[in-house]
Design a protein that fits this description.
Elements lengths: L6 H16 L5 H6 L19 E2 L5 H4 L7 H5 L5 E4 L2 E4 L8 H5 L5 E2 L5 H14 L3 E5 H4 L7 E4 L7 H10 L3 E4 L13 H16 L4 E3 L11 H16 L3 H4 L1 H4 L4 H23 L12 H12 L8 E7 L9 H5 L5 E4 L3 E4 L9 H5 L5 E7 L8 H39 L1
Parallel strand pairs: 5-6, 5-7, 7-8
Antiparallel strand pairs: 1-4, 2-3, 9-12, 10-11
């Protein structure tokens, strides 16, 4: 259905035209004279890259030297990662591609620019404000990005959990990668990691991610509702006039910042719910929720039907073999495992990342990693349940009121019939 065009839209279009009239040549004169604009930003690919920092505490190999995990070293295109004596070393040969941070299951590599939550906010912010948002890399873009273009060192830096949350919440996101751009890239492992991450996310979300290969096809068009909100916010700042109160149609428009704030609050509420329910082990160790898992849980909380699309692995215990040694609990990087009651093995699936370290460390082979759907990861939303209960109660009260009114009406009609007789 076409969006209704009203007076505010006309004013916005007129203001755009006036903006062009104020500077009809838009810097053409300066360009012809060879004069650079004052303080003009310059394209520098290094601005979108940073060297990751390593945290040995959650590292699987640092926790258990016999661990078979080699994810970071396999992803590094220049062999710049060494793990020795329970310590991660990043060599000077690091290309700052960030792929190690993307593939590490315990998020032992920290790169602020590509943290899952920060990446989600950047992509969601662009998708909420523009008709199409693009995620691309420095080699593909080769120029300063526009407001709806999110640039990372390598698109393989975007994890399946981030893609999953983005795909579900914002279907207008596409990847921009010209044909064959990855073939000549020195980040030789990036294309495979990218392909696996997107394929996994598409399977989880049950939706496809857009792909753009032609630079000429890239658009930068703001959403009309965002333009309206932006225009009215400017009037409110300038005049103090609450335009949204004058036009009921605009009152429902939510700003981009508010949407991101609501998402952050939702994650905080989710963490609080989990913390109250199972946030610590019997040894008073605080369980750790990775950022990737936070995004997945918050999305599943809103769309629980998608849980059947996701396959996760959690450990199951053969209690006939278990000796209650507690080694599995000791080395769990997220403290998802526990010994409860008289020493019975237990695991909290919401915190378990499926790394399999506990099964590897169990010398008696009592633990086995079992694959199943993510229905255990759907965390009830107390606020939503409360609202649903209140709505159900209101419906019952309404039906009761209607029944009583109908009863009184029938009684009144009976009385009138008797009077007629």
């Amino acid at each position: 259905m076409a969006q209704q065009h009203d007076l505010f839209d006309d004013i916005i279009d007129i203001s755009k035209g006036l903006g062009a009239l104020k500077d009809p040549f838009s810097g053409v004169t300066d360009a012809l004279l060879g004069v650079d604009a004052p303080d003009a930003p310059v394209w520098n690919p290094a601005d979108y890259k940073e060297r990751p920092r390593a945290n040995s505490i959650p590292c699987l190999v640092c926790n258990y030297e016999k661990s078979s995990c080699t994810a970071c070293m396999d992803a590094c295109p220049v062999d710049a990662i060494d793990i020795e004596e329970f310590c991660i070393e990043i060599k000077d040969s690091c290309r700052k591609c960030g792929l190690c941070a993307a593939v590490c299951p315990t998020e032992a590599f920290v790169s602020p620019r590509i943290q899952p939550k920060k990446l989600y906010d950047a992509i969601a912010g662009a998708a909420a404000a523009y008709e199409t948002a693009y995620v691309t890399c420095t080699r593909a873009l080769r120029r300063l990005p526009r407001e709806n273009e999110v640039v990372v060192a390598c698109i393989g830096d975007v994890t399946p959990e981030v893609w999953f949350s983005v795909l579900v919440d914002y279907p207008n996101v596409s990847v921009y990668l010209p044909l064959d751009i990855c073939e000549n890239c020195k980040n030789t492992t990036g294309e495979e990691i990218l392909g696996n991450a997107i394929a996994t996310a598409e399977e989880w979300a049950g939706a496809g991610l857009g792909l753009e290969v032609d630079a000429k096809a890239l658009t930068c068009t703001k959403r009309r509702e965002f333009e309206r909100k932006e225009f009215m916010d400017n009037i409110m700042r300038t005049t103090g006039l609450a335009v949204s109160k004058l036009n009921p149609a605009t009152a429902a428009v939510t700003s981009v910042a508010q949407r991101l704030k609501d998402h952050s609050q939702k994650i905080s509420a989710l963490e609080k719910t989990l913390k109250n329910a199972c946030g610590t082990t019997t040894q008073k160790r605080r369980r750790i929720l990775t950022q990737g898992r936070q995004l997945m849980l918050s999305t599943l909380q809103s769309y629980p039907e998608l849980a059947e699309n996701i396959q996760v692995k959690t450990p199951e215990c053969d209690f006939s073999k278990c000796t209650l040694c507690g080694e599995c609990v000791k080395i769990c990087p997220t403290h998802a495992t526990d010994l409860v009651g008289a020493g019975r093995f237990a695991v909290e699936p919401t915190y378990c990342i499926g790394c399999g370290l506990c099964a590897e460390a169990c010398e008696d082979h009592a633990l086995t990693m079992v694959e199943h759907d993510a229905s255990d990861l759907v965390v009830p939303d107390p606020e939503a349940e409360k609202k649903a209960a209140e709505a159900a109660k209101a419906r019952i009260e309404m039906e009761k009121t209607k029944a009583e009114a109908k009863k009184k009406l029938n009684k009144m009609l009976d009385s009138m019939e008797k009077l007629d007789k």
